[in-house]
């Protein structure tokens, strides 16, 4: 079952280059928010924890290392042997300020929910950085049909992450991006999708992120 809402906004011009990426916002956009941002406080793997990526996604790893100036490392846990972790005490602190944390009942773990209002206090450059980081991890291009006519749209999809979905919708609106469709797929897991078009400048930026999705 799908629900969707149509929104229209005017496109803005993006004067932006790689040197202007806000590293904190880019990494924030790349963070996995599946059921929130989860911490195991007594697990040494989570010291300075920013995010994790599957080992096979070598180009994504390369891009995140280029942006952050950091190197990924292996987890100690055997259950995460197929993943690598990006860690930094400085970035962890900066990223966590955008979350509201609460203790998970019966455990020593904490779960964080991203705070949309805090994220939206960023500059246009920071919000665009968030969009690009999110697109690297969660984005793709889809072909849509309209009365027999086909056209390409950009899409970002997240699972079990409604707060992140709300952040993405708000960022697109703040940036003046034309949002074509929002969808919620009510299956397990719940997935949230936002489809949008772009002008030539934003397209160039998004397409650069797509390059790093292909190993």
Question: Can you walk me through this structure?
Answer:
With 215 residues, this protein is α+β, with helices and mostly antiparallel strands. It contains seven helices and eleven strands. The chain has a five-stranded antiparallel beta sheet. It is globular and about 55 Å long.
Spatial strand arrangement across the major sheet:
1-10-11-9-8
* SS elements, strand count: 11
Average pLDDT number: 89
What overall geometry do the principal axes of the alpha carbons give? globular
Given helix and strand content, the structural type is alpha+beta
The whole-angstrom Rg is 17 Å
Number of helices: 7
Distance between the termini: 33 Å
Give the biggest sheet. Answer: 5 strands, antiparallel
**Percentage of helical residues?**
25-40%
Low-confidence stretches: 1-13
Strand residue percentage: 25-35%
The string of secondary-structure elements, in order, is: EHEEHEEHEEHHEEHEEH
Question: How is this fold's topology laid out?
Answer:
Layout: E1 2-5, H1 23-30, E2 37-40, E3 49-54, H2 58-68, E4 72-74, E5 83-87, H3 89-96, E6 99-103, E7 109-114, H4 116-119, H5 124-138, E8 139-146, E9 149-159, H6 162-175, E10 179-185, E11 191-196, H7 200-211
Antiparallel strand pairs: 1-10, 2-7, 3-5, 4-5, 6-7, 8-9, 9-11, 10-11
Helix pairs in contact: 1-5, 5-6, 5-7
């Amino acid at each position: 079952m799908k629900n969707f809402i149509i929104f229209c906004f005017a496109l803005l011009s993006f004067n932006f280059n790689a040197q202007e990426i806000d590293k904190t916002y880019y990494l924030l956009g790349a963070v996995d928010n599946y059921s929130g941002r989860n911490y195991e406080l007594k697990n040494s793997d989570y010291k300075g924890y920013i995010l994790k990526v599957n080992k096979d996604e070598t180009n994504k790893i390369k891009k995140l290392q280029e942006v952050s100036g950091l190197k990924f490392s292996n987890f100690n846990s055997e259950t995460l042997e197929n993943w690598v972790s990006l860690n930094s005490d400085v970035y962890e602190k900066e990223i966590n300020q955008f979350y509201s944390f609460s203790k998970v009942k019966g455990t020593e773990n904490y779960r964080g929910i991203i705070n949309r209002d805090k994220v939206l206090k960023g500059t246009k450059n920071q919000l665009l950085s968030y969009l690009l980081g999110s697109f690297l991890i969660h984005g793709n291009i889809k072909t849509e049909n309209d009365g027999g006519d086909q056209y390409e749209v950009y899409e970002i999809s997240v699972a079990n992450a409604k707060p992140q979905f709300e952040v993405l919708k708000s960022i697109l609106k703040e940036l003046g991006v034309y949002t074509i469709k929002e969808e919620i797929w009510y299956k397990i897991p719940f997935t949230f999708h936002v489809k949008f078009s772009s002008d030539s400048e934003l397209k160039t930026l998004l397409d650069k992120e797509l390059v790093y999705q292909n190993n």
